[in-house]
From TrEMBL:
Compositional bias annotation for Low complexity: 19-34
Organism: Amycolatopsis rifamycinica
Pfam families associated with the record: BaxI_1 (PF12811)
Full protein name: Integral membrane protein
Record's keyword annotation contains Hydrolase: no
Region (Disordered): 1-51
Keywords assigned by UniProt, alphabetized: Membrane, Transmembrane, Transmembrane helix
Domain of life of the native organism: Bacteria
Transmembrane segments: 58-80, 92-114, 121-141, 147-169, 181-205, 211-234, 249-266
Length: 277
């Protein structure tokens, strides 16, 4: 299975005639038998007890995850507005909700990624945690830039739908060369973010996130990389479906798409704030 810039889709097991490496298939996953190279997966092994994943599975699981994140996010944002006084003071409860959502979401995402196993409860919990974090953060941005959260949501939805159309129409083909470029760009951006964080904490110098021309360009680059990452996510989902992965793996696909959506929303929110300053 082709590599992806999304860590959730790295080194996934495959179905059909996919090779699993020295450790074999994951626990609970029975490799289909009788597959013919070039003609898709063969008959599922007897006793598998689970149908292959379909597009509908991916749509439903992703919709559920996104719905949980939106519901928690909207409730948190509405509550969060009451935790900010007119002078700009922020309550400890709002900061706690923001930090709590961030930490819980990060921990759960690492658990899902390193376990390399699908889990509906973990995926929905991750979505709820990210909804809490993004909702609290959006309330903070809204206090200074009214209407910015809705603009960021519309922008995120627009990019997602646009890249889905690009993928489905084949306007941009997901090739090994494109995949390597996106993975490399993602790693490069992550390294720059790390150095920027160190620079900010150690010297108070924040060129990539402090506003201004450099910050705007960096956010545009991040938005572009996140947008193209959707192509890799869609391609990975298609491959999992074609290789006959069990339907429960749709939860893993939903988690991968959610991580990209969260990153994209954050970058669009930042970019919009630069133009409001």
């Amino acid at each position: 299975m082709r590599s992806s810039s999304n860590p959730a889709f790295r080194n996934l097991p495959g179905g059909g005639t996919q090779t699993y490496g020295q450790y074999g298939p994951p626990v609970g996953f029975n490799q289909p038998q009788g597959g013919v190279p070039g003609y898709g997966p063969g008959q599922a092994a007897s006793g598998e007890g689970e149908r292959p994943m379909t597009v509908d599975d991916v749509v439903v699981k992703t919709g559920m995850s996104l719905g949980v994140a939106l519901l928690v996010g909207v409730i948190t944002a509405i509550w969060g507005r009451t935790q900010i006084d007119p002078s700009g003071g922020i309550s400890g409860a709002l900061l706690g909700a923001m930090l709590g959502g961030l930490v819980v979401g990060l921990v759960i995402s690492l658990v899902i990624i390193f376990r390399q196993k699908p889990s509906g409860p973990l995926t929905l919990t991750y979505s709820a945690a990210e909804g809490l974090f993004l909702g609290a953060l959006s309330a903070l941005f809204e206090a200074f830039f009214p209407g910015i959260a809705l603009q960021a949501i519309i922008g995120t939805a627009g990019v997602f739908i646009g890249m889905l159309v690009v993928y489905k129409t084949g306007a941009v083909k997901v090739t090994p060369k494109l995949t390597k470029w996106i993975v490399g760009a993602t790693v490069g951006v992550a390294v720059l973010m790390l150095f920027n964080l160190i620079s900010t904490l150690a010297f108070g110098f924040n060129p990539l996130r402090g506003g201004g021309t450099i910050a705007i360009i960096f956010s545009l680059v991040c938005i572009g990389i996140a947008a193209f990452s959707f192509l890799l996510d869609f391609d990975q989902a298609d491959r999992m479906i074609r290789e006959g992965m069990p339907s429960k793996w749709a939860w893993y696909t939903a988690f991968g798409l959610m991580t990209t959506l969260v990153w994209l929303y954050l970058e669009i929110l930042r970019l919009l704030s630069y133009f409001r300053e």
